[in-house]
Amino acid sequence: MHPLLHTADNIACEDLMVALDECHAKGFLWKSMGMCNDAKEALNQCLRAERAKRVGANRTGAENKNAKIRAMWKEIDENS
């Protein structure tokens, strides 16, 4: 598996990553016959869900930060 996938952000998908690695270790013919497709699809769905969680958290944090900045500028404009 790509080293960047093995991070704290994707710890929930660790078992699926291991399963895909094990499937790929069975050999070229196993992979080429599509025997690892289910494991790969499950991993893709898990990674997509984890990314959606991070995006939601980042968006909420950014909105809160922007609201705080707007409030500060509003206070500065009112006091000027």
TrEMBL record:
The keyword Phosphoprotein does not apply. Pfam families: Cmc1. Signal peptide: none annotated. GO terms for cellular component: mitochondrial inner membrane. It comes from the Eukaryota. The keyword Cytoplasm does not apply. Keywords: Chaperone, Disulfide bond, Membrane, Mitochondrion, Mitochondrion inner membrane. Its main location: mitochondrion. It is found in: Mitochondrion inner membrane. InterPro entries: Cyt_c_biogenesis_Cmc1-like. Required for mitochondrial cytochrome c oxidase (COX) assembly and respiration. Belongs to the CMC family. This is COX assembly mitochondrial protein. It comes from Thyridium curvatum.
